Fold these 2 entries.
Entry 1:
Amino acid sequence: MPESYELHPTSRTPSPEESHSLESHEFTMSHSSRSSLDSITELDPLKAKGAYTDKESSSIYTPSGLRSLFDSEKLLPLRQTYNSYSTSPSFRRLRTPSRTCCCITLLFFLAFLLLLSGGGYYTVTVVAIPPDGQSPPWYPSPRGGTVREWVDAYRKASSLVSQMTLVEKVNITTGTGWMMGPCVGNTGPVPRLKLPSLCLQDGPLGLRFADHATAWPAGVTVGATWNRSTMYERGRAHGEEARGKGINIVLGPSMGPLGKFPAGGRNWEGFGADPVLQGVAAAFTIRGIQDMGVIATAKHYIANEQEHFRRGWEWATPHGVSANVDDRTLHEMYAWPFADSVRAGVASIMCSYNMVNNSYACQNSKLLNGVLKDEMGFQGFVQSDWLAQRSGVASTLAGLDMTMPGDGLSWMDGDSLWGPELTKSVLNGTVPVERLDDMVLRIVASWYQLGQDNRDVWPYENGTVPNFSSWTKNETGLLYPGSNDPTEGKVNHFVNVQSDHWRVARQVATEGIVMVKNEDDMLPMHKNGFELTRSETRKLRVGIFGEDAFDNPKGPNACDDRACNDYTLASGWGSGAVEFPYLISPATAIKRTVLNETAEFFEVPSNQLSSDLDRKATTSDICMVFINSDAGEGYVAWKDIKGDRNDLYPQKGGDKLVQRVAKKCGNGGNGPVIVVLHTVGPTILEEWIDIPNVKAVLIAHLPGQESGNALADVLYGEVSPSGHLPYTIAKKASDYGPNSTILYSTKSLVPQQNFTDRLYLDYRHFDAHNITPRYEFGYGLSYTNFSITNFETHSLVPDRKPFPAPRPGPEPVPQIDRRIPSPNDSLVPPHFHRIKKYVYPYIDSLDDVKPGKRYPYPSGYSIMAHPSPAGGAQGGNPDLFTPLALVKCVVSNTGLGPGAAVVQLYLEFPGNITNSLGEVVDFPPRQLRGFEKVYLGTEDYGPENRDARRKPVAFELTRRDLSYWDTGVQNWVIPRGMFRVWVGESSRRFEMENVGWLPLPEYREQREDGEEWGERFWLGDGGEEWVWEDEVEDGKEKEGGRKGGEGL
C-alpha cells in the first residue's frame, strides 16, 4: 500500500457541538401488509396491479402455480437506482443536463434502437420498467452480534470500530476497484489501527490466478461423493492453501445455482439438484475452510439459476433477469442450503446479480434484512457479487455490507456507488450512522471470529500477505494495474501451498466417479493385459478414442479462465475455475497403470470420424471412448455456448463418436466398449446407451488435476466406484418439465423467469409425474453389492407440536455512537496523491454534504419489521434443529470385495394438508432428508472396525426436516398426519421392508403442560382453526393473544 494512500484520521473525537444531528427516523411498530393475516395477499407478481409481464415468458406461466413472497416494495426509479445521493449539489447539477448532453443522449438511444431493430443479437421491445417489485420492505437492517457464538468477536470489533473515523469505516466497506490490488477483491485498510486490507479471492474450485495451488474437483464432483468427511477434508485443504497465500476471504462454496435448469452454466460449481445435499456439502465445506482461519463465502444469494441475462447490459438488456419465486419455494428449496451455511457459521454471503421478483438481490430488504439477517440469524457480512450493486443508499439500507470490487456500474470506472458517496450519505443524514457502524462491525467481527488478528499466522507487517498477484505471473509487476500508476514492486513470491493435497484431490475425484452401467462385470479390468487375452505372448489391444482422453498440446491452461472445451475436460469455465498446476489426462494414467509389455495402445485423440478411427477400432480388443459436455460463466462464451449449455447432449459430436466406435470395435462390433463422460451436469445418453456392446459407462464429472489417476483407480480396481448421481439423467430434455428450460431470448427490458415448478425440481418432478428416467437421482453402482436390513423408526418426543419453541432473546449488541461526525475530517487531506481510478472514501468539498431534497426512502422504510418467529439463532430458530424422530438400519456388504455404500433417507409427507390460509399444501412424493456413506470391508469384525462387513446407520430427523413453510404464519409448521420414511440406495431403489411410518404422536386438541408456546395454528382438511385452551376465556379468545400471521 503506497504511503500516499494511508488515511489521514482526525486527531480527536468530535464534540457533540461539532457533530451534526441525525434527522430522526421514526419507526412505527405497526403491522405491515406482510404480517397481518387479513391482508396477506401473496399475489402472483405477474397478476398484481402494476406488475410487469414478460411477453415471451407469459405464455408458459401458470397463474395458480406462482405465489410471490414479494408484494409491496417499490423499485427505485432509474435515477435513484444508479445514484442515490441526491443531496449533493454536484449530483443536482448532473440531474440538470445541458442541451448538448440531451442531444447526444437522444442520438445515442436512437442509434441503439436502430441497431436492435436492424438485426442486433436481441430484438428488444421497449416497455415500461416495472413500477413495483413484489418484495415487502423489511427495515431496519438487523444488528449483528446477537448470538452467543459471535459475542467475543463483536466485543473486540466494537473496541476497534469505536476508534475509527467516518472515512476509515467507509474504507472497510468499499473495495478499492478492479485490479487495484493483488486480489480480485481488496478492501481499504485502516493502517492507523493496524487493520489490513482484506484479500478476497475466487473461488469454489481453488485459488483463481494463484500459482502453486491445487486445482480441486468441482462442486458437482464433490456432491457425487455423498461423503461428509470428503467434503470437509477438501474444504480444510482449500482453506489451508488460501491462508498460505494470504487470502482472507475465499469466494466459495457455491450453492446457488441449485440446479433448477439442467443446462445452467454454473450448476457445476454447486453440489447437486437437491437442497439437502447442497446444504450438507456446503456446511461441511465451510467448516473445513473456516477451521483453517479463512472466511468462507456462501454464494450466490439467491435464485441465481441461469447465465443468460444475469446482469444488465451483459446481454443487451438494461436489467438482469428476474427470478420470480414464491415464498414457500424460496424457503424450502433455494434458501435451505444458505440456512445450513449460516448454521455452520459462515462469515460471508455473496448476493447475486439477478433480480428476485423484480427487485435486485443486492438491494432486496426482505431477502437480506428479513430472511438472511433476521430469520437465519446471519452474523457475518453480505458482499455484492462483482458489480452486482445497483444503488447506493437503497442497497445500504437493504442490508448490503460490502461492495465489490468497489467500482460503480462498470468495470474499472473508479466511480463507486459507495466510497465518497457513502461518506456523503452519512454526513447528510440519509444513511444512519448505526447502519454504517453495523456494516463495519460485521466485517471486522468476521475478521476476529476467524482469528485473522493473530500476527503469528497472518504476518501482515512483513509485506508478504498476500504473497501473489492475480494480474501477472512475473515476480515483479504493477501494484495497481487497473490504473495508469507506474509503481512496481515484488508481487509474486511463488509460495507453494499444495503440500500433499493431491491425495485429497485424488480421493474426491475418485469418489465422485459414478458407474451407471457395468454389464457382464466388464469392470474392473485387469492391469495385466495377458490375463485378459489369456495368453502369455499376445498383448491386449486397447483403443483410446476421443479428444477428451488426451492432454491439450498447448497446456491445461491454454484458454483464459478455462473458457474452451479442448481435450480432456476437468473443470468448467469462469471465475470459479483455477490455474492447473498440472493435469493428468486419462490416456496418460491408463498407460501408466497397465503393466508394461502386456498391452498395446491405439490412440485417436480426435472426435472426427475417419478411416484411421475405423482401422484402430477394428484392431482393438477393448475400446474406451471419452466424451464430454462443458459450460461456464456467462461473461465469456465458447463457440455458441454462452455460459448455459444449448442442450443436454454430449458436445463435439460425442454421440456419433460412441456409435461409430461401438460399430467398429473388435472387428465389426464384437469388442466391448467402455464410455467415460466428463460433464458439468445432466447429460442425455440415449443415442448409444442401449447398444449391446457398450458394456460400461462411467460419469467422471469434473475431476480437477488428478483426473486421469482417479479414473485409472476405478477402471483397474484399486478403488470400487462409490459415487452416486447428484441429479437425474433423463431420457429426453422435456422430461425435466416445462419450466426447466433456460430463458435464452427475451423481448423485454426486464427478462422474467417464473419458477412455477415450485418444489418439483429434478427427481421430485419425475416422481410426481411418474416419469421414468434413464438413471435416477442418487443412483450409482459398485463392484460389490449391499443390503439394508433391521429397519426401525422411533419417536424422540412425547408429543407433536406444530410450531418451534418461542424465539430466544438476542445477546446484547455493541453500543454505537449515533452522532454524525464533523464533515471536516472527511475531506481529502492537503497534498494527497490520488491513484487514478482507485476508490477512496474522502469527499472533495463541504458543499457535497449540504442539505438538499429529502431522500425518497423506500416504501415501508419507516415501519419497523417484526422479528421472525422462525429466527433466533444461526440457521434459524434453534428448535428447528431439535431431533424429533430416529431411523435406524444396518447396511451389509454382500459381495466379495470392499466398497462404500451410500444409504439415503427420503421422507413422504402426509396428504390432505391445508395451511393457515386454508389452502391445500402439496408435497413431492418423496424428499431427501438424510444420507450416510459407509465403507464396508469383507470381514466379520465388530462394527467399529473399518473393514467390518456390517455396520449400523442412524438418521435423526429434526423439526425442520418434518416441517413445511406456512406462508400465512411465516413459520415452519409440522402438519398432522402420518409421515412415511423410505431408506434405500437411490431415490427409486427401495426394498419394502425398509419403508415404514414414523411413530410420531398426533396433535392434542388442547394444551395440558402449561408451556408458553401456544400460537393459533391450522390443521385438517378444511383449514379449521384450533386454539390452545388458555387462549380462550368464557368462550371468547383472550385479548392480546397472538394470532396466526402476526409477528412476535
Entry 2:
Amino acid sequence: MVVKGAREHNLKGVDLAFPRDTLTTFTGVSGSGKSSLAYHTIYQEGQRRFLESLSSYARQFLGRMEKPKVDLVEGLSPTVSIDQKQGSHSARSTVGTLTEVSDFLRLLWSRLGTPSCPECGAAIEAWSPDKVVDAILADHGGVAAMVLAPVVRERKGEYRKELAEWAQKGFVRARIDGVVRRLDEDIQLQRYAYHTIELVVDRLTIDPAERSRLAEAVEQAVQLGEGSCALVFGNDQYRLFSTLRSCPNGHGALPELEPRLFSFNSPIGACPTCDGLGETFGFAPELLVKDASKSLREGALHVFTDDGRLVYGRLTIEHLAEVGRAFGFDVDTPWHKLPAKAKKIVLHGSGKQTFEFRWKRQSAMFTTTGSDRIAFPGLLGHLENVYRPSRARHLDRFRAAVPCSACQGTRLGPAARAVSFQGRSLPEIGELSVDAALAWVRGIELAGNAERIGRDIKKEIERRLCFLADVGLGYLTLSRRAATLSGGESQRIRLAAQVGAGLRGILYVLDEPSIGLHARDQERLLRTLEALRDRGNTVVVVEHDEETMRRSDFLVDVGPFAGAHGGEVTAAGAPDDVLANPASLTGRYLRGELVVPMPKTRRRDDRGRLRIVGARHHNLQGVDVDVPLGRFVAVTGVSGSGKSTLVHHVLVPALQRDLMGADAGPSHCERIEGIEQLDKIVEIDQAPIGRTPRSNPATYTDLWTHVRDLFAMLPESKLRQYEKGRFSFNVPGGRCEACEGAGVTTLEMNFLAPVEVVCDECGGARFHAETLAIRWNGKSVHDVLEMTVDEAAAFFADLPKLARGLVALQDVGLGYLKLGQPSTTLSGGEAQRVKLATELQRPATGKTFYVLDEPTTGLHFHDVARLLNSLQRLVDAGNSVLVIEHNLDVVRAADWLIELGPEGGSGGGRIVCTGTPEQVAAHKTAPTGAALRAIGIGGKPGAAFVPAARAQKPQQAPRPTTITVRGARTHNLQAVDCDLPLGKFSVLTGPSGSGKSSLAFDTIFQEGQRRFLESMSTYARRFLGRMDQAPVDRLEGLGPAIAIDQKRTTRSPRSTVATTTEIHDYLRLLFARIGRAHCPTHGQELVAWSPAKAAARCVEDWAGARAYVLAPIVVPADAATAWLDALKQEWQQAGYARALVDGQELRLDAAWPQPRPQELLLVIDRTTLGERARVADAIEQAQAAAKAHGGPPAAIVQLAQASGGSPAGERHWFRADAGCHLCDYKAPADVHPRWFSFNHHSGACTSCLGLGDVVVCAEELLVNHPELPVFGGGIQHQGAGFSFLTNPQGYYAEIAAVLAERHGFDLDKPWRKLPARAKELLLRGAGDERFEVVFKKVEDGKRREWRMQVAWKGLARQVEEWFRGKDGENEADERIAAVMRSQPCPDCHGERLQPGPRAVRVGGARLPELLACTVDDAFARLAALKLTATEQRIAADVRKELANRLSFLRETGLGYLTLERSAATLSGGEAQRIRLATQLGNKLVGVLYVLDEPTVGLHPRDTERLLRTLLELRDLGNTVLAVEHDEVMVRAADFVLDMGPGAGRRGGRIVASGAPAAIAQSDCLTGRWLRGELALPTPEQRRAPKGHVALRDVRVHNLQGVDVDVPLGVFTAVTGVSGSGKSSLVMDALVPALKGDGAEVVWHDDAQEGGGEREHALVVVDQGPIGSSPASNPATYTGAFTPIRELFAQTPMAKQKGFTPGRFSFHVAEGRCGACEGKGQLQVEMHFLADVWVTCETCRGRRYNSETLTVEYRGKNIAQVLAMEVDEALAFFGNHKHIVRPLQLLHDVGLGYLTLGQPANTFSGGEAQRIKLCAELARRPREHTIYVLDEPTTGLHVDDVQKLLAVLDRLLQRGDSVVVIEHHLDVIAAADHVLELGPEAGVHGGRLVASGTPEAVAATPGSHTGRFLARRLGLAELAAPDAAAVVAEEPAPKARRGKATKAGKGKVPKGKAAKPAATAGDGDDA
C-alpha cells in the first residue's frame, strides 16, 4: 500500500509504503500524527472509495466522506474502522443488541417459543370459533357489545385505500385507535404514527337467542382478523380472543409470536410501565440514608424530622417501632446492622398486614387525635404518593433510576416474559454472561421441523458468542448496557463482529485495541488480530503496547515529536529494523536505551485513608477496601473485574456529593469513611478541552486573560480607551469581522477536504489594524498567539502570572504547542496534559483527590514518562492521585495497588490483594502480580526496567488463495462445493437455469455483501437493510462484494450521465466555490465590494485621477419639495455640501431645480485617487447613505474630466451586496452547491421544475382539422371533455365570440386562415383581460339570461389543466395525452436551472454549457479553464476529481455521451460501463466484483474493450467473477466453472472447472462448444421478404432521420455497436408504429394479390418473469392445466362426489389444503436469515385436501400429476391432444425437465422466455404476427441458443415475422436479413450503416458487424483480425493453474482458434 503527500493536520507531505495482508503498527508520541495518517488519511480514503461504489440510494443515507488531503493512495481495500468510541449512549442499547445476539434470540423465541398465560401460567391453546361464542355468551350475557375484527395492529400508515375498500365491502364503522368512527367520514391518519384499526362486524346485545347471529359475526371477524377477534362491551371494556393463541382460563389471547414481541425497543414488546428501559425514575433507598451508622430513631434516614415524624405524613418513628416489633426488628439498631428483610419492610411496607396507628395533631388553637387501621406503606411508597401530585422539587435529590417494579428490570412486557424456550424465558438468557450463554446454546437439542427452523439461528448465536469470548469478553452479560461499556470493551465488541464476518481483503484500522486490557488478556487479543491478518486482511493498529509492536509484521514510527515537531515518518520496517534505527524514539525505548522511570522509594507515611464499606453494584460483591491518601494509588485487575464500578459508581459519586455538592446519584455502598480529610475531587480525562476552533491552550489555561489584561494596561491602549475585550478574537470590537477573528475563511467543499483561504481583510492576523498597532516589547496580540509555549515562556519570563502557567505547560511536555492552536486539533494525550498543567499551576491545598481513568490511552513510552512526572508532582504537593490502569509502567510506579478480580463479570468483583507493587508481585494468584514478576518487579525499587527476552514470534498462517464454497443449496443448487481462485478473472457458464446466478449472485455475492454490511455501523444498516443469509454450509475467503449488472439505475428524467457519475455534484461544487455571478438580464459580473476592496481597485486602476465618490439616492415617485428640502437639511447637518442632480452639480445651500429630479447622487467626497484609507472611508459612507435612503448599499466612483474637474467621466459602481445596479438583481451571499441543482427547489427552473421540458397541448395535434373553423369541427377528438370544449353553443364558444369581436377576427373562418395573433389568443388565452359575456339558456320553455365577467383561459391551456388534473390523475388518459407534446421549457430553454445559477460563470463557462458537452469535450474545456491563483487553489481538488471521473468514462469508451444525457435513455451496456468506470476510478483492492452477463448488449467490437476493463480490475488486485456465455470472455478467463449438466433439477452441479484449455478438453457442453462441436449451422438459403414495414425520417433519441424498410415474413436481426440506436429504432419507433395506426405495412404481390395491406398482430417477447408468485407454473401458463383438471373432473369418482374442474385447482379453497392454502409448504419468515419452507404437516406437501386426492386418473392423483416432469407427463397423457400439444412444445424447446407444478418465480430468464414462446406457438394462428425480441440470447448457453432458433424457425415456417435486437454472431448469421446501425454510438451513431443478408453486410465497407460476421461465415478476406492479435498487445496474463474436474478425450479440431474473433479492427476507437 502506497501513500504519497499526506498532509492531514500536522502531517508534512508524508510518503509511506507498507505491505498488504500484514499486521502493521503505527506508533509515536501523542500528537505526532499517527491517527492523522492511519485514520484521517488511509481509513477515510478507503471508506470514501467504497461508499462511492455503493448505490446512490445507499449513499444518500450514509452521507459522503471528505476526501483527505493526500496526493495519492494506492492499493486500498474497503476499510473498516474499529475505534474506542462508545457505540451508543442510548439506554436501549445493550451488549445483546450491539452484537445482534438479541436479534437472533428474539427470532428463536418467536419461532420455537412455547407461550403461556402471563396471568395464570397456563399453556396457551387455540380457541375454535364455537368456543369463543360459548365464552362470550357465558361471561357477557345481556350486555350490549360490538364484535370487532382487528385488521391493523400497531402499524404505521395512512390506510386510505384500505378504509375505502372496507367501506365498499359494506362495513359501516371501524374502531380506530380506540375511537369508533364511521367509514364514510373523511378519516385522516398520520402517516408515520402507529395505528390500530378494528372493523365493527356487528353490534348486538349478547343473548343465547341470538347465538347464530353472534356465531356468524365471530366467524367473519376471525377470518378478517386472521385468527383474532375482539369484543368491546360495557364502559369501553375490551376482550381479545384468538383462534390461534388464547388462555384456557379466560385470561385473553396472546399476541402473535413475532420477533418484535420480544424487543424492548418496540411498543409491542416493551414493558408498558418503563417503556422498555428496565428502570423508572423513583426514590432510591441509597440516597435516603443519611448516616448508616445511626439507628432509625437517631436519624439514619432523611425522611424523619428531628422530633421523629415522617415528612408529609401522620406517621412517626413510634409507629415504625410498632411495625418493627411485629416483624422482629428494632428501630434502635444501627441501619447498617439491620437485616435485609427488615430494611425491605421499612422501605417497601408491610404488605397486607395492617396496624392500628394512633395519631395526634396539635396546632396553636386545636389538638386533633384519631387512629387509622392501615398497612404500613413503606417509606418509598409514602414518598411516591407525596411526590406525584406536588412534584416537590426538594425531594429530587433522593430520586434516581431504580429497577422497574412491573418487569423487574427485564424490560419486556408480560406476554413476552411468558414465552419460554426449553424451559427458560428470554430475560433469563439475557442475564447470562457470554460464557454461560455459550454453554447454554451448545446444549440446545432440536429435532424435526424445529431442527430445520432453529438450526441456522442456533449457529448464528453460537458463532457470535464464540467471537465475543475469543476477544476476552466472556464476562459481559448480554443485558449489559452499552453506555456502561469502556472504550476498550466497545472496541473489542466491534472486533468480535469483524472476526465473525469472516471477510478477507479488508483493511482494518484499530485505535489502541490494548486499552482496557490487562496484560493477561493481551495475548488473546494479539491472536485475534493475527487471525484477521491470516485470513487475508490488512490490519493497521495505532498502538503503543510493546508486545503488539514486537509481534507486528511492519512497524511505522511517526514523529519525532508532537505537533509542529512531528508529522514525519522517522522509521518504518520490520520491528527489528525500527529497533535498530537511531532516529526512532520508539526504537530507543524498545532496545532499553530509554526507560520509563520508577520512583526510587515508595511513599509510606500515613496521611489518612478513605475506607469503602459494603460496595455492591454490578458485579461488586460487598467490597471493603482502604484507599490511602497522600499517595499515588493504582486500581488494576483483569477486564471486567469491577475497577470502573468501584471508582466511578461507588467512590466518585460519594466524593462529588459530599465535597462538591453535586447531584451525583447513589454511591452503591454502605458508607465511605474519611471523606472529611479532603476538600475537593478533580477528574482528569482525555476529553477535548474545547469543541470549537476558538478554544485553545491559552484560553483553557486562562493565560489569555492575563495577556489581554497586559495589553489593555499599555499606555497606548488607555489613550485609545481600549478595554481588554478589544484583544479577544471571540467578540466583535477588535477582531477582523471579515473572518470573525479566525484569520482564514474556511470554504466547505462538501465531500472534499475544506479549503482554508487567508482572509483578504486582515491577511490572517485575526484583528483590525488598529488593534494590531498596540504592541508590547514589539509584539502584537496576533504575534503572541503565534508563539509556541517555549517562545512565550521566554518572552513573558518576567511576568509571574503568565510565567507560572507557561512553565506548567512546559513541564508536561507541551512546549511545542502554539498558544493559539485550536483545541480541536489536539490529541487526547495533549488535551489531558493541558488539563494537568492547569491543575499544576494552581496553588496546592494538599487535600485534592485526583481521579484518572486509563490516563495512558494514546500515550507513547515518552508521554507516559512525562505523565508520571506530572502525577508524582501532584502527590508531592500533598494531594492524592488514584488511577485506573493496566499499563505496567504506571502500575509499577504507583505507591499502592488495589487489584480486583480474580476474573471478569460474575467471577470478579472482589479484592484480590492490596499493597505496594512489590507486595502484589509476591502474591501468587494475582494476575497483576504475575505480570509484574514477568517484567522484573519484586526486587529493589528504582531498578531500571530492562525489556525481557521475547518469545519467538508465532508462525504466520498461510493466506487464503481461493473462495471456498461448501454445501451451497440456493434454489436448484445441489449442495455445490467449489473453489474460486482469488485475484483472478473467473467465468461461470452453463445452460440457462443450471444455477449460475444462484451460485454467483444469490450465494457468493449476497453473502459477501451481507458480511460487509454487518461490519458497518448500526446507523448505516438501518438504511441499507439486512440481506438474508445464503443457504450454504461454509463460505470462506470472501471479500467485500460489489455487483455490476446491466440494470439501468433509474428511469427518472432527473437522472443524467452527470448525476449518475457524480460529475454534476463536483461541477456544482466548483461553481458554488469559484463561480462568478453575473446578472441574468444584463450579463455584467456581480461582485460584493467591501470598502477596502473597492478602494484598492480604485487606487490600483485609476491612481492620481480626480474622482467623485457618490451615494445613489432613491427618489420616491411622489416626492414633493418638502421631502427634498428635509433631505437637503439632513445632509447639511451631516456635513455634506454637494449633490449631483440629473448630472449637474448642486450645492446644498442652493434651491432644488424643477421638476422633480430623475437621478439624485449625494457627493460624499471629491478626492484624488491615491490615499486608500480616505477612499475606503468615503465608499463606506456612500454605501451606508444609499442603504439608509431605501436603496441598495452602493457607492459610485465617477472620474472627473481632465479639464475643469467636473464629474462627467466614467462611472464605476461598487455594491456591497453583489447586485446589478441596472435591474437590482442580487446574487445570493452564501451560495450552496444545491443552488446549481435542477433536482432542488432552490435551483430548479420554476416553470419546468428542473426537467428542462414541459408537456404542452400542441396546436397541430389539438386542431386536427385545420380546414374547418375551430368551433365548427376543427377540433375532433374522442372524450366528453373535447365535446364540451368545442360545442358551438357551449360555454367556451360564447366567450370566444366576444374575444373575436374585441380583437377583430372572424371566428367562422377555417383555422388555417386565421392570423397568427388570433390563433395565439384562442389557444393561449388573453391573460388578465376580462370579457362581459351574456349567457342564454332555454329549459322547459323558460328562457334564462345572465351576464358574467370572465377571463379567457385559452383552449390549449384548458386542455393542459385537464391533463395535469389533481395530482396528475389525468396523465394516464390516452385521449388527452394524444394532443400533448413534450418540448423544451420556454423559460430556461431546456437548461433546467433558474436564471441566477444559469448566469454564473467559471473561467467564462456557464454550467449548462458544460453539461451540454460530451465527456470528451467537457474534459478538454475543464482543462483549459483560465483561473486566478486563488481560484486554482480552491478548485484544485475539485478539478482533479472531475478530470479523473471524465478520464475513466473516456477509457471505457463513453466519451461520446453528453453529460446532460438522461440516464433513462442509456442502453444496458452503457449503464454497465458507467458503473465499471466508477469502480475503475475507485481503484479498490481486494474486492470481489460479480458481473451478470457483462457482454449482453455489447457488440463484438465492444467486447474487447470491456474485457480490457475487467482485466484491469483484476490486475489492481481484485477478484472478478462473471456469469457469461460469450466465447471471448470464456477463453480470456483465468478460471472457468461450468454448471449443469442440464437446467432446473437436472442442473445445479459443477460439471467441470479449471482453465479454459482444460475445460475445452472435457466432455461437458461448454467443452464441446469450445472445441467447435456445437457450432450453430448457417442456413443454406435465406428467406425472401413478403413485405415490409416502412419507417421514414425516424428521429428518436440519437436516430438521425433514419429511413428503413423492416422486412416481413423473414428473420430480421437488428445490430450495431452499443449505443448506436438499435433499441430506439425497434422498441421506440417500430413497436409503437405497429401498435398504433402510424405503421406503413406494405405486402409484396406474391404475398397478397394486388399487394397492399392486410391485418397483422404484434407480440413483444422479453425475458421478464411469467409470474411473480409460486401460484403460476408451466402447466397453468401454457394452458395445459385446464384440460388436465377437466380430465380429472370426468372420472367416475369425481362425478360421484360432484367435483367440478375447479375442485382440482390449488387456487380454490374448496379442494386445496386449508393449512398451507395449496402451496404444499409453509413459509417460516426468518427475517435476516434465509426463510425456511417446511413441509405442510396437514397435506404432507401435496397441496390438496385428502378428499380431493381420493380422485385418481390412471392411478395418479392431481398432486402426483403436478409433480411429474414435462417429458414424463407427455408419455402419461399421450392420447389427449389438448394436453399433449403444449407439453410437446415445452419438450421441443428443451424444457422437458421442468415439473408441471414448478413455481414460475424459480425460472431463469431464458426459461421464462421459452415458455412464453411456447404459449404463443400453442395458440391458433389468426392473422400475420410480428414477433419482436430484445436480446433473446441473454443468459443463454450456445445449447439454449440452438433451441431458441429452432422455436423461432417454427414461427417463421408458420408464415410469421421475427425481429430481434441482437449481437450474438450465431444468431445474426442465422438471420435472413440484417439491419446495422452506427457507425459509432451516441451522436456519432443513429444512422443505417448496412442492410441486407448477412453475406451482404459482411461485404459492406465500414461495417463493424460485417468484419466479425465475415469471419463467422468463413469469408477470410473480409474478416476482422483474430482476438489473439489484440490480446497480444496487452501485458501477458499470469500463468493459469488448475485442471478441469472432468477431462474430455477429444482435442481442439484443427483450424479452430484458441481465442474468439470478437475483437476490434481498424478504426475501433473512432
